[in-house]
Amino acid sequence: MKRSSFAAPYGLWMLVFTIVPIFIIVYYAFTINGAVTLDNFRMFLEPEFVGILTFSLWLAFLCTLLCLLFGYPCALFLAGRDMRRATLFVVLFVIPMWMNFLLRTYAWMTLLEDTGLINRFLEWIGIGRKRLMYTENAVLFGLVYNFLPFMIFPIYSVLVRSDRNLEEAAQDLGANAWLVFLRVTLPLSLPGVVSGVSMVFMPAVTTFVVPRLLGGGSFMMFGDLIENQFLTTGDWNFGSALSLIMMGLIFISLGILHRFNPDAESNGAVW
Amino acid sequence: MQDKSPPSGIDDYHLIELVDVTKVFDTTVALSRMNLYVRRREFVTLLGPSGCGKSTTLRIIGGFEQPTDGKVLFEGEDITRLPPYKRRVNTVFQRYALFPHLNVFDNIAFGLTIAKVHRPEITRRVGAMLDLVGLRGMERRSVDALSGGQQQRVAIARALVNEPEVLLLDEPLGALDLRLRKDMQLELKKMQQRLGITFLYVTHDQEEALTMSDTIVVMREGRIQQIGTPKRIYDEPKNAFVAAFIGESNILDAVMIRDERVRFCEREFICVDRGFGQNKRVDVVLRPEDLTLVPAEQGMLSGVVMSVLFKGVHYEMMIDCGCGALKVHSTSMAPEGERVGLSVVPFNIHIMEKVGEACPA
Ligand SMILES: Nc1ncnc2c1ncn2[C@@H]1O[C@H](COP(=O)(O)OP(=O)(O)OP(=O)(O)O)[C@@H](O)[C@H]1O
Ligand SMILES: [Mg+2]
């Protein structure tokens, strides 16, 4: 038996659940009642739909940016020299990830509610209740919270395997801590950043559950729009066209990210 | 401690001084009360077996490790607590540590850009370095696309371009093949003399140490065994450890009867050493090339040839003299099983204190 045949089950899986569905989507996207047409894509050009896409991209962008701003220092800290401390914190970061993200989001809902823990605390210290749920910020917060580990781990895994000798070499050549970071640590961790960004940005654009729960349905995301077409409106043709547009965007952003990646071949990041 | 007058071209100025430096890692004592000075323009080599604390010494001088106790002086100033980036020394690391995200030019220019040197000046100085190490034309190459020898040159250029007072080199030739090693040894020595930079060099290769250094520091388990010129260390090893580590030697138990009289192999010999006291147990070193093959009845010692190996320039014979096998190097050869005599001139009988007594704990 050839070694490649071990991959057969996976190949079958891919065929049935990925390749075939993509063909079905392409078929639906370019037809209405069996007739070939571009109307599904034309329909998307309505300001309402373009607006939803822009909003989704904007929110995903903010989410990615915040994840990067919080995640990078975290990863740096975790990859630090003190192994015992780091292991403890790695575990602390991993444990929430073992929980389903829906559960985590529900947990946050109870915290953010008008009568939730946070508001009671605010009341207690005299600031008074604030409306936290069903705001854009609540959605953003939920997204950042859910996706943060996906930013931290690729960066962490690159940093932790980085060669400490290089940092010493930079110090030896006159670089202080800040310059060592700027000239050596940061550029060498770019593969991790790129992979973290793509692992946060792509799912964030297409996400629909978190905005619905924390945004109370007041914000329509692109993911919601697609889901609506299939499950509520029943317009599979338009839904398929939207899905294709989504895929196109993902490929474009992957391409852009790839350009930023200094060594795309040898990047040891998570994917 | 360094009882020698400086070789020509070296100021008798103590550029770097280690005072009672001790370094303890958790439970291992890497260095214990190390005292050493390095003079301006001197080529000093730290020599010793793996784990004896050579790298640790270098890292303490570079500022990457803090001594547990003791002081590091640079031009007489205490720099023990100074961070590495403020020290006027540069290091060539054991495994080069070139920046993989930068090309050859940018690697070499790293220190100058940090120091905010003007661009044309950088180009000029990096260019001069490229010429010096023979890498002209490879500026734009990625450092991963270089051979071991070329990477090694980049590492040296990257350190030298900053015109450091002292260059620390941690086994810089360790990863090269024998041929390239020999070439680079000569080149490094030439570079050091031409630029007039002080080198503190680490190796565990005694031959390398002997050919390149002005001064050799022999270390063992975090302690200095002997400091001296290559010739002095080779000719007058202070104890059996140094003798065994530097070159090949026969080390025998002996008793110093009185000045210039020593007894080993059940026979009394005349030697030139004095001041060891009377009837004192000592070690005697006989270098294989100092033992001369003579007819059996004329020898001071006699024995049976146990084995003969041809080594190119000479034969190496093991001769059983009844007091252990002696290694002899000679251009003439006696066949296995033959009884031969050995003679040695008094000047070549080296007397050393017993190791344990040489360095009180
Ligand atoms: N960071 C460290 N933590 C614990 N022990 C260390 C550390 N660095 C060095 N040591 C120990 O200190 C001793 C001296 O090490 P050092 O690296 O100076 O040896 P070396 O002479 O350079 O050896 P080699 O020739 O193998 O490079 C060794 O026993 C080593 O295990
Ligand atoms: Mg070492």
Content-based structural category of chain A: mainly alpha
Q: Helical amount among residues of chain A, as a percent range?
A: over 70%
Largest sheet of chain A: 2 strands, antiparallel
Rg of chain A (CA only): 22 Å
Strand arrangement within the widest β-sheet of chain B reads 6-7-8-3-9-10
Strand content of chain B: 25-35%
Most extensive chain-chain interface: A-B, 18 and 23 residues
- What fraction of residues of chain A sit in β-strands? under 5%
Q: In angstroms, what separates the terminal alpha carbons of chain B? A: 17 Å
Low-confidence stretches of chain A: 264-271
The overall number of domains of chain B is 3
* Distance between the ends of chain A: 29 Å
Fourth-level CATH superfamily of the domain at 47-221 in chain A = MetI-like
Q: How many extended strands of chain A? A: 2
Rg of chain B, rounded, reads 24 Å
Please state the structural category of chain B. Answer: alpha+beta
CATH class of the largest domain in chain B: Alpha Beta
**Percent range of helical residues of chain B:** 10-25%
**Overall geometry of chain B:** elongated
